[in-house]
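ZP: hey, is the magnesium ion complex queued? I don't see it on the tracker
AM: it wasn't, my bad. submitting now with these inputs:
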Amino acid sequence: EKPLLEKMPPDQEQALTRDIEAEFERLKPSAASEDRRRKFLDKLSRILNEEWPGHDTKVHAFGSTENHLCMNDSDVDVCITTKCKAIESTCKLAAALEKRGMERIVCVPGAKVPIVKIWDPEYQVACDMNVNSTLALDNTRMIKTYVEIDERVRPLALVIKHWTKQRVLNNAAIGGTLSSYTWICMILNFLQTREPPVLPSLHMLPHKKKPPNAGVDISFADDIETLRGWGRDNKETLGELLFAFFKKYGHDLDYEKNVISVRAGNLLSKEEKGWQFLQNNRLCVEEPFNTGRNLGNTADDCSMRGIHLEFRRAHKILAEKGHLAECCEQYEFP
Ligand code: GTP
Ligand code: MG
């Protein structure tokens, strides 16, 4: 076997960096798509306050709508906060939304976080909504802060997210692969563990304590004005970082031993977390707030083998030709 390429040749690396920048411009949501999301959110708020007036009901977007990692086809994730018991019963909420013209309504009342899924034909957006589960707003605030610290994070993360969708590696619920949230944690931890690091651990930096949310500690350093530019000692280009990302997860990481921890800003061991015998623990990604949860457990061993081969495929293409388009080619089912 040929020895692994540690770095790309400089001209190839510069071309890849330009390709990533161009792809990022293409992937960024258009003003029109941002506008549709905003209008949808206003309309949802109007509907809820007309159907059930006087309950201080508010609509908060989270997920990619708020964390700067939105693509044109991303869904809108919504948390409704309200004192109204009828809205809390997701089935009544679903019925009211149907009456007001929403389509493809799916109500999942029994889930850990009950949700309603809808499609708005007017603004052409899909939406997942929960009621009064505000923890997702806090993890969204964390991701948003990380993205704002260094200007390389957004293009790198969007291009990798695009790759995960093209290669069918981004479906935790049905596909047995990983959610966008899990992928983002893997990207952030990769950037935290560069030498020198591109990102800090926001949980480890000094910060003011906030009161817990549903028993969970939600405080971390979030003053973006003092954090911006934290990673400037790291001079790596987008091309170098993307290449190193695939190399790390395709060849260097010891999946047998390690736990990816954004909270620690480092790798932990399965032993120290007591995660040696969990189910589906081939890939361990610690949820940064509920640290007992493994976000990687949506992928079983077989699916992880597939994901691992995809990292290696991407690394090989970049090592040999450096072509981003080939790396992100749509997966063809056999
Ligand atoms: P796209 O919809 O693919 O553009 O990405 P997204 O960033 O919106 O991710 P996704 O729709 O998978 O999840 C939306 C949000 O839900 C995330 O930003 C998290 O705030 C939250 N979330 C998703 N999965 C989990 C999970 O397993 N645990 C927790 N605590 N929150 C999650
Ligand atoms: Mg989403």
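AM: back. The chain has a mean pLDDT of 96.
ZP: great, adding it to the tracker
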